[in-house]
Amino acid sequence: MGYANVINFAGIRIAGLSGIYKSHDFYKGHYEFPPFNHGTLHSIYHVRNLEIFRLSQVKKPIDIMLTHDWPTGIYHYGNVQQLIKIKPYFANEINSNTLGSPENERLLKLLKPKFWFSAHLHVKFSSIYKHESENNEQKETKFLSLDKCLPRRKFLQVIDIDGDENKKFLSLDPEWLCILKRSDHLLSVDSYNRAPIEQKENLTISEQEINDLNEDFQNCYEIPLNFKQTGPIHSEISSDKRESKDIYLNEQTTLLCEMLNIRDPIRVLLEKKGKTSIINESTTQLYNDLLDESD
To answer: Deepest of 9, 32, 134, 147, by most Cβ within 10 A of its Cβ?
Structure first.
């Protein structure tokens, strides 16, 4: 899912946000570059303002939201006393309503997904959040977090969600692609805090934009099964330490960015660091194949 994303599977619309919320990194760009130091080793997985902004622009309904962090306050809509009994050291943050991510809470109220699945706190917990009614319609979000995948821990639960049997494949989401395209100018790879994204940047994706995108993609958003290994496999016993100091471009990301005419943050970082040889040596065979098919 990357930093943030919206994809579709079997007609089910799935949004995702990677990382955890830390206020001191929230307004920074994606500046981290290997080899990582103690600070960047942690900050690289901290959520940034840009991803929250992009997700907040989604207007069409979301079925499933996937995040690492819990939304702040979600514990008040389930068995909070049982949660404190299992995790007593959560009590102070629960009482001060600071456990979880305030930005995820904002997204919860904006997107109103049918399901919200999280991790991070290593405990099974469920709740139902009832949204304010609109036009006499009462929406609710069913929240679920599971424990770590260890013996005798509650790490697995099966949920049935109705989908389209004829669309059992991953596909890109047109509205999300338009959001990426319209917000590309907000991308930052700076290590300092920037001003919050202003309300004037809020987007409304028009039907004409969707139609133009359909034409560019020939009404085909299915994600092909052409995944490739882009870097060496990490191994604790390997003498090959390239994975600790190198950065790799992903062909599928390169292809998507070229089709949308947007910037790849990894490529921007490479250019900023003067690592243009990596860009020059990288292949875009997927894009070349697409051009050949068009011919």
So the answer is: 32
Single-letter amino acid code for the residue at 161? I
Q: Is 5 helix (H, G, I), strand (E, B) or coil?
A: strand
Write the single-letter amino acid at 143.
F
Radius of gyration of the chain from its Cα atoms, rounded to whole angstroms? 21
Is pTM beyond 0.70 here? Answer: yes
Helices assigned H by DSSP within 30-128:
38-43, 49-56, 80-86, 91-95, 102-111
Task: Name the region of 187 (left: φ>0; alpha: ψ -120 to 50; beta: rest).
Answer: beta
C-alpha dihedral (101, 47, 43, 247), degrees to nearest 10: 150
Question: 27-56: b or e for each residue (b if 16 or more CB lie within 10 Å)?
Answer: bbbbbbbeeeeeeeeebeebbbbbbbbbbb
Per-residue pLDDT tens over the stretch 160-192: 999 999 999 999 999 999 999 999 999 999 999
pLDDT tens digits, one per residue of 30-76 = 999 888 899 999 999 999 999 999 999 999 999 999 999 999 999 99
- Distance separating alpha carbons of residues 203 and 166, to the nearest angstrom: 32
Give the residue among 118, 122, 128, 124 at the shortest CA–CA distance from 78.
Answer: 128
How far is residue 155's CA from residue 122's CA, in Å, rounded to a whole number? 9
Q: What is the pLDDT of residue 93?
A: 95
Give the span between the Cα atoms of 210 and 175, in whole angstroms.
7
Element (H, E) at 145: strand 140-145
278 confidence band (pLDDT: 50, 70, 90): low
Residues 6+ apart with CB under 8 A from 226: 252, 286
Residue whose structure tokens are 């770590």: 148
